[in-house]
Specification:
This protein is of the alpha+beta class. The chain has 2 domains: 106 residues, Immunoglobulin-like, CATH 2.60.40.3120; 257 residues, Aminopeptidase. It is 26% helix and 23% strand. It has a 7-stranded mixed beta sheet, sandwiched between helices. Helix 2 packs across helix 8 and helix 6 crosses helix 8. The radius of gyration is 20 Å and the shape is globular.
Length: 374
């Protein structure tokens, strides 16, 4: 029996592994930070054995509500991910599984390695009307890739993976980009004529490779650095914000995942003093349109509405909405299954993320004509 996490996105430490019936593991903290939640490891040599895998420090993790009604994901081929029986007793997260093959990989959510990000950039740049630029580098010298799509006057921004363990965001980006760049999709063509899409599919490649949940290589939570980013601890935000200042922003969607809530939902630009009234109306219209386009999305459950004047402008969408007086929203997806549209086998899955990403174009089409308010 072998347990391995020494790969892109890997995260686990071995406490005890003498028997497949009593494997005890530990979550490793984010690099240079205290966040503790993401896991991804491979178990080999246990085909046909009843494995009991306990993550014994799960009760000390950053978001313990994330373990309630949660089922871990597993894969034999790193393409198809399925849920496996998982329980949480307030201290340990226990996975029980009898693998069909010699090697199986387990993770908090379906993994998205950096090689797949690079392949996505390469595939998209070959589509008509798509350009790619490197707008900066991370602390570990990885490229910050920006895709530019379309030629319309509106500046439409989409970013994902500020929090690297929220791999749902990368799967969402696949669906979004494949539809947006499809020359045969009539709606995509129309939107590309109305706006120039500026897309950063991966805001935190260092954190993703390191197996972090929430931070970059410096231990910085990028989504709290938008007010005062620096090249020393948040170059990822620094270079993207500089590009936004150059191009302007008429619309922003920042794609994330939420540990605790089993729903897809939007956190809108509430709480910003002086924000143009029409922006909140556009937020509501976008959400209503997305719910119609894709029933995996809903408007009933989400974060509490931020009172006026209480917005934290260190957060990306709050900063962008207040700075550019535009519609800026955070999309959250579950690590668990979607409670309103459950799938007992796969839960919330890469394929469903991709479909939700594609549906974003339908919702954008409803508001795009009113993004600039005179």
């Amino acid at each position: 029996m072998n347990i391995d996490a020494a790969f892109d996105g890997g995260n686990i430490e071995i406490e005890k592994a003498d028997s497949s019936a009593d494997i005890r593991l530990l979550l490793r903290k984010d690099t240079n930070a205290e966040f503790l939640q993401w896991f991804n490891f491979r178990l080999s040599g246990v085909a046909g054995e009843d494995c009991v895998i306990s993550i014994t420090n799960a009760g000390k993790s950053s978001y313990t509500k994330g373990w309630e009604s949660y089922q871990a994901v597993a894969s034999y081929d790193l393409e198809t991910w399925f849920r496996v029986p998982t329980s949480y007793d307030g201290t340990s997260l226990t996975i029980r599984h009898k693998p069909l093959h010699d090697a199986v990989e387990y993770a908090y959510f379906a993994t998205y390695p950096h090689s797949r990000h690079r392949a996505l950039i390469a595939a998209m740049q070959s589509r008509p009307g798509v350009g790619t630029r490197v707008i900066g580098e991370t602390l570990q010298n990885r490229a910050m890739d920006l895709l530019e799509i379309g030629q319309g006057p509106l500046s439409l921004w989409f970013i994902a993976r500020q929090h690297p363990g929220e791999t749902q965001a990368s799967w969402w980006m696949e669906g979004f980009l494949h539809r947006l760049c499809d020359p045969d999709d009539a709606l995509a063509r129309k939107l590309r004529d109305l706006g120039t899409f500026r897309v950063v599919p991966h805001m935190n490649p260092d954190g993703g490779v390191l197996g972090n949940l929430r931070t970059n290589a410096a231990g910085t939570n990028l989504n709290r650095m938008w007010k005062e980013p620096s090249l020393e601890n948040s170059p990822e935000v620094f270079c993207v914000r500089a590009e936004m200042e150059r191009t302007g922003v008429d619309f922003l969607l920042d794609v994330h995942g939420d540990e605790g809530l089993p729903y897809n939902f939007i956190a809108g630009p509430y709480g910003i003093t002086g924000l143009a009234p029409h922006v909140l109306e556009l937020n509501d219209r976008f959400c209503e349109a997305l719910e119609i386009a894709n029933p995996d999305f809903q408007n009933e459950h989400g974060y509490p509405t931020v009172p006026d004047g209480k917005a934290d402008t260190r957060i990306c969408t709050k900063y962008v909405a207040s700075t550019f007086d535009c519609l800026a929203m955070t999309l959250e997806q579950p690590f668990k299954d979607s409670a309103i549209t459950p799938d007992p086998v796969h839960g919330w899955s890469p394929e469903r993320c991709r479909k939700l990403g594609a549906s974003a174009l339908d919702a954008l089409a409803v508001v795009i004509g009113d993004l600039r308010h005179e």
